[in-house]
C-alpha cells in the first residue's frame, strides 16, 4: 500500500530522532498509558507506535506483545497523515482498509481508533491507538480522553529531552569549568614559581652588597657600588610587592575610585615620572602627542598607574633603542590614550591572554627583563573601574604593539591637581620623631634614617611603651604601625591625641593594611595621613614637610 509523505517529512524524522525514543526498552510509564487507553475505550489492545522512515516501531503494547511493522503496512502510518485522529469502526465495511495487511494478517484489526502524537510545535511522531477484533464505536469523550493521554506521552518525552539537554549542557559547562580551573591552577603554579624566582633573584646581589659593606678593606667605589645595588634591588622588590597588592585589591573590589575631571597631559606626565627609569634604561625614543586642554573623568591617584603600566610594558617588550609613542585623541564623549611601540609584538591570542591574571604569553622578551606580568591585568581592571576600556592590538610577532585606553571625557575645564612627585627643596628643621612598630628591624631602620637626617628619635615596639614615652616626652612627629601586638594603632592614636603635648603632632600611619577602608579608618582614628608599606623613606621625609606645611604648624628648632 502506497502512502503520501508530507513535504516536511525530513524535518519530522529529524525531530523524531532527536527525541531519542526509538529503539529504547519498554518503560512502565508508557505501559501504564496504553493500559489506561485500553480501559477507557474498552478494547483488548492498545499500542504506542512511532513512525520513522521505514517502520512502525512499538514503544508500548497492552494486550499483545510489542511488534513492529513495515511503514507501508501500518494503520498508524495512515493515521499519521490525518494530523489528528483516525477512527475505523469496522474495517470490513471500509473499502480502503478491508484488504489492509494489519486487517487481513495476524493482527486481524476490525476496530481502530488512533490519535496522533504531536510535539509542542506541531510535529507528528506516531500514534496512541486502541484496536479490537470486533466492530465498535467510540464517543467524542472517549476520543478526547485518548487525545489527553497522547498529550501526556509527548509531554513526558519532551520533558525527558529537555532534561537530557540540560544535563548535557551542564556537563559541558562543568567540563569547561574544570578545564578553566585546571588551566588557572597551572597558570597559578607557573606564576608562583616565577614569583619565587623574581623575589629570590635580587637577594643574591643584596646579600653580596651587604657583605661588601661589612668588609673594612672595601674601597669607596666598591661601597658606592654596593649602595647602588641595594637601592636598585630593593626598589625592584618593592614594585613587585606593590603590583601584587594592587592586583589583589582590585580583584576583590577593595579599591574605590574618586572620579573627577583630570587633565590628561598632567596624568601622562605623572605616568612618565613613574616609569622614567624603565624607559631610560632601554634607551628608547619617546614621543608624546597630547592636547593640554583635554580632561578625562578619572581618579587622580589611580589613573596615572594605568598609563605607567602600559609604558613599562612597552619599555620591557621593546628591544633597546626602540620607539615608544603616546598619542591622545578625543571626541565629544571619549578620550583615547594610545601607547604604541615597535617591540616584539603579539599573536592574535596574546591580545587577550596578556590581561589575564597568572597568565604569561610567549613573547620572546617575556622573562629576560624580569617582572611579574601583573601590570596589564591591573591596568585593565583599573580602566574598567573607571568605566573605560583597555584593549591591545598588534599586526603580529615582531611588528610592535598598540594599547588603547578609553576614558570618559569631562566637559569641565578645571582639573583636580595631580600630586607632584618631584622633591621640594625645603628641608625639615630638626624634629622629635616617635617611631612605633613591632617589627624591630623596620622600626630601627626608620629611627636610624631620621637620626641621620638630624632629628631626635625615640623607637618603641609596643603601643604601651609609646604611650608611656609620650607622657614624659613631646614628639613633633609620630610614625606608627597599625597592627601592633598589644593595642591596634587606631586605639593608640586616639589615646595619643588625648595627650595635650601630642595633640598638635603630625601623625602618620605606616602599615601593610592598604585599602581605602584602612585609610579612612586611620584618618578617623586621628592620623594625619596613611602610607602603605613599604614606605620610601626619602619620599616620606618630603611628605612630612608637605604635610606640616599644609597644617601650618610651627616647626620648632631644637
Per-chain topology:
Blueprint: H1 9-19, H2 28-41, E1 45-51, E2 55-62, E3 69-70, H3 75-80, E4 85-88, H4 101-104, E5 111-118, E6 124-132, H5 140-200, H6 203-214, H7 220-251, E7 259-263, H8 264-274, H9 276-281, E8 285-289, E9 295-299, H10 303-316, E10 323-330, E11 334-341, H11 350-353, H12 375-385, E12 389-393, E13 401-408, E14 432-436, H13 440-452, E15 456-460, H14 463-472, E16 477-480, H15 489-497, E17 506-511, H16 516-525, E18 529-532, H17 537-550
Parallel strand pairs: 8-10, 14-15, 14-16, 16-17, 17-18
Antiparallel strand pairs: 1-2, 1-6, 2-3, 4-5, 5-6, 7-9, 10-11, 11-13, 12-13
Q: Can you count the helices? A: 17
Broad structural category: alpha/beta
Low-pLDDT segments, ≥5 res:
1-5, 364-369, 415-425, 553-558
The overall strand count is 18
CATH topology of the largest domain: Beta-Lactamase
Mean pLDDT: 86
CATH class of the largest domain: Alpha Beta
CATH architecture of the largest domain: 2-Layer Sandwich
Distance between the termini: 120 Å
Structural domains: how many: 4
Roughly what fraction of the amino acids lie in strands? 15-25%
The percent range for helix content is 40-55%
CATH homologous superfamily grouping of the largest domain: GAF domain
Amino acid at each position: 500500500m502506497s502512502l503520501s509523505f508530507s513535504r516536511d517529512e525530513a524535518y519530522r524524522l529529524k525531530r523524531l530522532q532527536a527525541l531519542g525514543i526509538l529503539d529504547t526498552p519498554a518503560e512502565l510509564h508508557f505501559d501504564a498509558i496504553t493500559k489506561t487507553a485500553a480501559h477507557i475505550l474498552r478494547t483488548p489492545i492498545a499500542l504506542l507506535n512511532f513512525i520513522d522512515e521505514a517502520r512502525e516501531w512499538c514503544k508500548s503494547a497492552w494486550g499483545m506483545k510489542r511488534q513492529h511493522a513495515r511503514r507501508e503496512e501500518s494503520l498508524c502510518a495512515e493515521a499519521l497523515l490525518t494530523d489528528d485522529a483516525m477512527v475505523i469502526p469496522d474495517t470490513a465495511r471500509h473499502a480502503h482498509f478491508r484488504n489492509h495487511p494489519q486487517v487481513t494478517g495476524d493482527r486481524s484489526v476490525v476496530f481502530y481508533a488512533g490519535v496522533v502524537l504531536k510535539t509542542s510545535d506541531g510535529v507528528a511522531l506516531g500514534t496512541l491507538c486502541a484496536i479490537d477484533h470486533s466492530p465498535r464505536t467510540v464517543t467524542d469523550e472517549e476520543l478526547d480522553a485518548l487525545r489527553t493521554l497522547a498529550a501526556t506521552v509527548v509531554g513526558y518525552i519532551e520533558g525527558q529531552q529537555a532534561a537530557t539537554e540540560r544535563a548535557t549542557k551542564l556537563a559541558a559547562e562543568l567540563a569547561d569549568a574544570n578545564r578553566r580551573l585546571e588551566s588557572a591552577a597551572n597558570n597559578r603554579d607557573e606564576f608562583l614559581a616565577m614569583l619565587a624566582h623574581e623575589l629570590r633573584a635580587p637577594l643574591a646581589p643584596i646579600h653580596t652588597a651587604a657583605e661588601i659593606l661589612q668588609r673594612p678593606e672595601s674601597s669607596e667605589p666598591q661601597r658606592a657600588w654596593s649602595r647602588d645595588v641595594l637601592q636598585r634591588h630593593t626598589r625592584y622588590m618593592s614594585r613587585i610587592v606593590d603590583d601584587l597588592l594592587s592586583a589583589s585589591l582590585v580583584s576583590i573590589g577593595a579599591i574605590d575610585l574618586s572620579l573627577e575631571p583630570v587633565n590628561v597631559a598632567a596624568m601622562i606626565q605623572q605616568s612618565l615620572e613613574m616609569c622614567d627609569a624603565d624607559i631610560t634604561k632601554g634607551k628608547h625614543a619617546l614621543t608624546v602627542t597630547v592636547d593640554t586642554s583635554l580632561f578625562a573623568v578619572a581618579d587622580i591617584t589611580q589613573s596615572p598607574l594605568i598609563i605607567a603600566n602600559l609604558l613599562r610594558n612597552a619599555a620591557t617588550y621593546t628591544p633597546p633603542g626602540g620607539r615608544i609613542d603616546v598619542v591622545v585623541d578625543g571626541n565629544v564623549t571619549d578620550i583615547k590614550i594610545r601607547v604604541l611601540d615597535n617591540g616584539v609584538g603579539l599573536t592574535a591570542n596574546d591580545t587577550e591572554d596578556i590581561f589575564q591574571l597568572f597568565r604569561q604569553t610567549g613573547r620572546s622578551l617575556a622573562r629576560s627583563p624580569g617582572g611579574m606580568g601583573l601590570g596589564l591585568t591591573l591596568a585593565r581592571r583599573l580602566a574598567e573601574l573607571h568605566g573605560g576600556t583597555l584593549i591591545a592590538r598588534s599586526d603580529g610577532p615582531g611588528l610592535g604593539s598598540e594599547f588603547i585606553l578609553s576614558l570618559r571625557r569631562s566637559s569641565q575645564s578645571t582639573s583636580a591637581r595631580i600630586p607632584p612627585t618631584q622633591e621640594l627643596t625645603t628641608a625639615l628643621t630638626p624634629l622629635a620623631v616617635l617611631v612605633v612598630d613591632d617589627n624591630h628591624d623596620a622600626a630601627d631602620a626608620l629611627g636610624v634614617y631620621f637620626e641621620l637626617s638630624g632629628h631626635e628619635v625615640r623607637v618603641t615596639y609596643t603601643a604601651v611603651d609609646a604611650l608611656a614615652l609620650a607622657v614624659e616626652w613631646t614628639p613633633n612627629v609620630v610614625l606608627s604601625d597599625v597592627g601592633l601586638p598589644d593595642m591596634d594603632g587606631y586605639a593608640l592614636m586616639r589615646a595619643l591625641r588625648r595627650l595635650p603635648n601630642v595633640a598638635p603632632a603630625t601623625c602618620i600611619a605606616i602599615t601593610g593594611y592598604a585599602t581605602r577602608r584602612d585609610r579612612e579608618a586611620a584618618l578617623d582614628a586621628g592620623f594625619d595621613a596613611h602610607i602603605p608599606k613599604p614606605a620610601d623613606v626619602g619620599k616620606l621625609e618630603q611628605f612630612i614637610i608637605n604635610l606640616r606645611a599644609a597644617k601650618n604648624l610651627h616647626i620648632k628648632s631644637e
